[in-house]
Structure formats: C-alpha cells, structure tokens
Amino acid sequence: MKVKNINLEITAISIVIIFAIAISLIIAPEQSLNAIDGLFNFVSTVFGTPLLWFSLAATIICFYFALSRYGKITLGDGEPSYSLFSYIGMMICAGLASASVYFSFVEWIFFYTSPALGIEPMSAQAAEWAPAYSFSYWGLFSWPPFALAALPIAISYYKRNNEGLRFSVVCEDLFNLKKNSLIGRIIDILFVVTTLGGLSVTLGLGVPLISSMFSFIFGVPDNFTTQVIIVIAIAVIFSLSSYIGLEKGMRRISDANIYIAIVFIMVLLITGPTVFILKYTTNGFGLAAQNYLRILLWTDPVNNSGFSERWVIFYICFAVAYAPLMALFITKISKGRTIKEMILSTVLGGTLGYIALFGINGGYGMHAQVTGKMDVVSLYNESGAGETVLGVLSMLPLPLKLSAIVFTIMLMLFLATSLDSASFSLAATATKNLGPDENPSPMLRLFWCLLLALIPLGLMFAGAPLSAIQTVCLAAATPFAIVSIVFIFKSMKWLEEIITRAKNNKKESEMA
Q1: 3-state secondary structure string across 187-256
Q2: CA separation (Å) from 25 to 34, 53, 199, 318, 474?
Q3: What are phi and psi of 82, to 5 degrees?
Q4: Which of the chain's termini has less CB crowding within 10 Å, N or C?
Q5: Model confidence over 390-418: pLDDT tens digits?
C-alpha cells in the first residue's frame, strides 16, 4: 500500500470525529443521548417535509435521465464488467440488505398494529395496507437517491477522466475549485463519518438477531461474548472478500447469497400459504403503486401522530445516509453500462427484489397472525425479533434447526457484503488517485473493514446505544440531499457536452 496515495488528512479527521462521538456515548450516555435526540428532532422538524419532496424529485429525475437521450450514454469502454444478475445482485446485497432481512419478517407488525391514514389497528384493512408501506419504504423511497447520487460520480469517473472516486473530485470539477479544496475535504469527511456511523448500526441490527440464532442452533448463551465471536466471523468474511477484490470476492459472495435468498423465499412461498402470499404481495404492490403520493406525502398535519417522522422521513434519511456509499459502489461496478441500465437496474432491480423479500417473508407471518395459527404480534412484543423469526420458521415443513442455519448463513452473507461495499467506498474516498481500471489498496480496504467491526464492538461492550450513532449519521446525511440535487443539475452541462461531442464525431466520420 502506497502511503503517498492515501489521503491521511481525511482518514484521520474522520476517525477522530467518530471516536469522539463513541467516547461521549460511553462516558456521558444520558447527556449525549439527549443532545442527539434534540438534533434528530430538529432535523425532522425543519427538514422533514423538504425531504419528502426530495424523495419525489429524486424519483422523477432518475426516470427522466434513464428514459431521455442521456440514457444512451455508455459509462466507460468495453463490455459490462459483470452479468446483469451479478450486477443487480451486488446492489441488492450492498444496499441496506442485512437490515431488510431483519425487517422483512417483522416490519408488517408495526403497520398492522399502528397504521397510518386513520385505519383501525389490527383490522383487515390494516393487514392489507401493511405491505404497501414496506414496499414503498424499501422500494421507490430508498433506491432513487442511490441512483441520483451515483450519476454525477459516474459521469465524472468515466466521461470526464477525473482521477479519484470521491465526491470532492466531482465538486471541484463542477465548480472549478482547486484540487483538495476546503469544501471538497469537508464533503469527503462528512461522507466517511456518515458511512461509518450507518454501517456500525447495520452491524448493530444484524448481530443481535444472528446471536439469537446461534444461541438456538448451538445452545450457547446469547450474550456479549457470542456477539463478539459473530462480529469477528463476519469481519473475517468481508475482510477476505475485500482483500481478494470485487471480481473474485464480493461478486462471488453476493451471487451465492442471492441464490440462497431465492431458494429460501421460494421454499417459504411453495410450502407456505402460497395463494395468500401471492395475493398479499400483489394487493400490497397495487396499493403502493396507486397510493405512492399519498404514502409519501401524508404528513398528518392536524392530528400530528408523528407517523411520518417515525417512518417516512426516517427511511428517507436512512436512504440519503446510504446514498453516498452506494453511489461510489454503483459507479465502480457500472463500467460498460449505459446510464439507462445503471438507473433502471438500481431503482427497479432493487425495488422488485425487496418487494419479493418483504412480500413472501412478511406474508408468511401475516397469514399466521390473521388465521390464528400463531400470535406473531404478541410473540414479537414479548420476546423480540429473534424469537419471532424462529416462530415463523417453525411453521415450515423442515427441521427448525436446518431452517435457522440457512437463515443465519443468509443473514451473515448479506451483512458481510454490505460491509464489503462500505469498505470499498471508504477506501476509495481515502485514496487520492483512482483510475477506472484500478481498485483501492487491499490493505487500505482491510483497515476500514477492521474499523467497521471495532466501533460497534466497542459500543456494545460499553453498553452504549448504537441507535445514537445511527441518529447522528442520519442527521449528518441531510446535507447530502442538497448536494445530490445540486450535483445532478450542475452535471447536466457535462451530459450536453458528451451528446454534442458524439454528434460531431458522427458527422466527422460520415464526412470521412
């Protein structure tokens, strides 16, 4: 690893900020939590409604660029680096994947018991609307910000020949700033802090669920020691994948993971209440599509139930927090793809993948609830997510331990690939010059892998809430919504130049 090619300033400042937040949570947890809660309340109050409009704008802009003449522009030379299956699979595995596996079994419970729109809790109407909210939050609310953030990065990287896969490089080119400008450095530092915080929480969501599965499968206690072992095991997986590289490492792991996930949910679909799940998913998709604007823009201004802040605004913040990391990762794996392919694969591929996951996993549990086969709601309220997932899996016509083992492997691989993509993006940001055919140093990626594992371990050991880091990263991510919009409109001049240059080249070749 060439130290001279590493941006030590950005790396050091980012680490200091993250550790300062973590230490404050350990030393003065109550005061820190109060300050953090105040920060998020401020953000959701002041920027909440504008963020709803941002999500709508992101969706419209993405489809405009995909279906317009700009969509035909190819990113990079040569054939695509990955098959369409691997391409979309890597995106799905990288984008909120471990969190989605966690919530796909239990999220419907919240919308069933505390629905929006004045619907009666635990009614038939609440049951039918529950999947529509999950499909919206994990679909068209989450994926367009990823593609929106990726487009200027991809143009800069492949068409402007800018060395360096960093937001600061795009910013400096767009606004004619000098190299390594103060604004550019601030953007890169904000990116690193947001990514480290967000991915620490991804571990925080996934590890306790895996720990409860380990406790059931192997009979070990569900305690901090078990969680440490799990984090180390996951760290080894994604560290090895990072060291090997995208082609041999993450692509193969994500391909295997997607195959396992497909088999897993198909078993649930075929052996479970197939007709109910298909109708539940279809009806939920229809409600989500028909009521897209109502779900997104329902702010409940009179009653102020807080539903929008707890769910819609929170998920949009979460998507914006992940967007910078996904932008760099999507850019890197999109060589040889057109802008249309990149956007539609991201938005539609990701959305449809999550509809299948939440529709089948959630539908299985919902059927048990509404038919009285199992009181899933009470099980969740009394015992938590781990016991709830085990309860749902116990209804499969398979040995429960076998189902639990497959589910645990799938969850660990999803978690490992999410962290692997994060380590790539962090290493790319910390690398000064990175060409289209180059990857960050394996040792630098390994460094970020270790750091991604150490932060949540330290917080869990101290008993500090990982949700606090999550709240900080969500609040810090809000400026990226503004950055994304500014970048996309400023980069239109680049697209016009590319179109004009292509026309002139065509005329010259015809005249020749």
Answers
A1: HHHHHHHHHHHHHHHHHHHHHHHHHHHHHHHHCCCCCHHHHHHHHHHHHHHHHHHHHHCHHHHHHHHHHH
A2: 11, 33, 17, 21, 17
A3: -135, 150
A4: C
A5: 999 999 988 999 999 998 888 888 877 77
Beta-bridged to residue 431, according to DSSP, are 6
What is the number of helices (H) and of strands (E) in the chain?
A: 22, 0
pLDDT in tens, 283-329: 999 999 999 999 999 999 998 888 988 888 888 887 888 888 888 88
Write b or e for each residue in 395-422: b if 16 or more Cβ atoms lie within 10 A of its Cβ, otherwise e: beeeeeeebbebbbbbbbbbbbbbbbbb
The sign of the CA dihedral 355, 361, 362, 366 is positive
- Predicted TM-score (pTM) of the model is 0.87
Residue ranges of the chain with pLDDT lower than 70? Answer: 1-5, 25, 33, 40, 96-98, 197-198, 200-201, 204-205, 238-239, 241-250, 434-437, 455-477, 510-512
